[in-house]
Amino acid sequence: MPSVDAAPAPAGAAPVEAVAARAIGLRKRFGCTVAVDGIDLDVPAGAVLGMLGPNGSGKTTLIRMLLGLTRPTAGSVELLGQRVPDGIERALPHVGALVEGPGFHPFLSGRENLRRVATMEPLLARGAIASAVDAALERVGLADAADRRYRGYSLGMKQRLGLAAVLLLPRRLVVLDEPTNGLDPAGTRDVRRIIAELHAAGTTVVVSSHLLAEVEATCTHVAVLQSGSLVAVGELHTLLAAGTTGLVITTPDVDLALRTLRGAGATAYRAERTSSEEQAVVVGDDGPPAPELIALLVREGVAVHEARRSRTNLEELFARLTEDPS
């Protein structure tokens, strides 16, 4: 499927570059296995990009190559305007990343672990370390557990501490690989809030997640991978709109509506519904225009409670893009 070009960064983000990260012909082979196969991808500065794909689609490998953690077999990477790996030392201080889960010392407390991380931040003044650590712990909801040993943390608490390390100082780019892994619903809401705060501050965020509802709620752009290839990329609302077809008409007179619509030459069928939903019919785009159909239904005595365009959600779009063509 041809990809959709990504749009410019949102107004007000004021990025230094129009593109925060760029992959050009990126390919990675592990022995006989091709994990990433010739990907071209621009991450617009100021965007929140959701990176989606089934397990084994190449998401984490692509992220690791963008961050200079894995060398590509072919192709090149630019990160915050710097070529990777040559300019990686100039770019990385402005990047916060949580990739493949956090790694900390088990016998140190959460606060002590975070202080050790903070001392290695070249852009964080030594005198500001204590306040930066306290602020990051508070922001991720770990202030009350900050002095407990890391080995006693739950999976969700470990994930929160990894996120706190990303938030020690303002970043131009934040990369989060499955940030809600192990989190309860409250923790998931916290991650959603933090992503929104980062986006409002003009930070570019890349999120790899299998929770499609969270991606749909937080991301401005999406990139969908399948078997190491990029099958779609672009603004989320544009991709969803491209999958929108037909009209949904809510009515208690379904049988009469179907006869009337089909008699007018439109493709129409009964909509699936849950027990709490009203009855509805779905009308294809192959018949008369929507205003004519609504007027016709009213003339024929059909009670029309609502008429709206059918909207594809991200789960449906993802299933369509990643289905097995065989």
Folded structure, characterized:
This protein has helices spanning 59-66, 88-91, 110-119, 129-139, 155-166, 185-200, 212-218, 236-242, 254-263, 290-299, 314-322; strands at residues 19-30, 33-44, 48-52, 74-79, 82-84, 95-98, 173-177, 204-208, 221-226, 229-235, 247-250, 268-270, 280-283, 306-309. The chain is built from 11 helices and 14 strands. It is elongated and about 75 Å long. With 326 residues, the chain is an alpha/beta fold. Strand 4 and strand 5 form a beta hairpin. It has 2 domains: 19-241, 3-Layer(aba) Sandwich (Rossmann fold), CATH 3.40.50; 245-310, Alpha-Beta Plaits, CATH 3.30.70.100. It has a 6-stranded mixed β-sheet with strand order 6-7-8-3-9-10, with helices on both faces. 32% of the residues lie in helices and 25% in strands. Mean pLDDT is 88; it is low at 1-16. This is ABC transporter ATP-binding protein. InterPro entries: AAA+_ATPase, ABC_transporter-like_ATP-bd, ABC_transporter-like_CS, P-loop_NTPase. Pfam families: ABC_tran. It comes from Pseudonocardia adelaidensis. Keywords: ATP-binding, Nucleotide-binding, Transport.
